[in-house]
Write a structure and sequence with these properties.
Length: about 220
């Protein structure tokens, strides 16, 4: 009987050990399935570096752990800038995604990195939406039809994004932004008292610069 119990105990220990090993292997497999390859990470780092260089915001470092998020997918890249670059670019300095000197750039996958994805992570969504709404009102005022199924602000290449950033930075000086991050809502934006005419002129100047174009969402 004692011999039988010893054998049974050994069998149980072996089975438990095998199950633990399988669990560990399964965890590693799942972890790797939700992680970008080193090559993709390097490619993503370089793509972001080149985009920011082309926008006259040369980064000191671009990095990512390559881990895809379990909820919603996507992964984060972190772009580090010098104090000089941040202080000379209000769009960076005032970005909600900037922590100290690191800008978080979220993309669905490494192949999704583009000027549009940089725009989406760089700007304050509240201000960008406000500019979109005011541009739509401007279209109505001048008798230009505006389709609600189309974006008016869509800066998806180097030229348009550089122009857009210049006007966005001007807008930062003309509005008040209420931080709603605590309630996870988009920030509330209002034009500063006495700046209404300047803001209206800003929208007109954006149109003259070819930045107000309707594109399908």
């Amino acid at each position: 009987m004692k011999q039988f119990l010893k054998v049974l105990t050994r069998i149980i220990l072996i089975v438990c050990g095998a199950l633990c090993l399988l669990a560990a292997l399964a965890f590693l497999l799942v972890a790797n399935l939700f992680k970008a390859s080193p090559g993709d990470i390097r490619e993503g780092n370089e793509s972001l570096r080149q985009i920011f260089i082309s926008l006259d915001m040369p980064p000191e470092k671009v990095e990512s752990n390559g881990k895809y998020q379990f909820e919603g997918g996507g992964l984060d890249f972190y772009v580090t800038f010098s104090d000089e670059v941040i202080n000379s670019n209000p769009v960076l300095k005032e970005s909600p995604n900037l922590t100290k000197n690191r800008l978080k750039v979220y993309v669905l996958n490494t192949g999704d990195i583009s000027y549009h994805s940089v725009e989406d992570n760089l700007f304050n969504h509240g201000l960008f939406q406000f500019l979109e709404e005011e541009s739509r009102k401007y279209f109505q005022e001048i008798g230009k039809k505006s389709n609600p199924s189309y974006f008016i602000l869509s800066w998806q290449d180097q030229e348009s994004l550089k122009k857009g950033i210049a006007f966005y930075e001007k807008a930062l000086n003309l509005v008040d932004i209420q931080d709603n991050s605590a309630t996870k809502r988009i920030d509330t934006v209002t034009v500063k008292p006495g700046k209404e005419a300047e803001f209206k002129q800003l929208i007109q100047d954006m149109d003259a610069a070819g930045l107000l174009k309707q594109k399908y969402k």
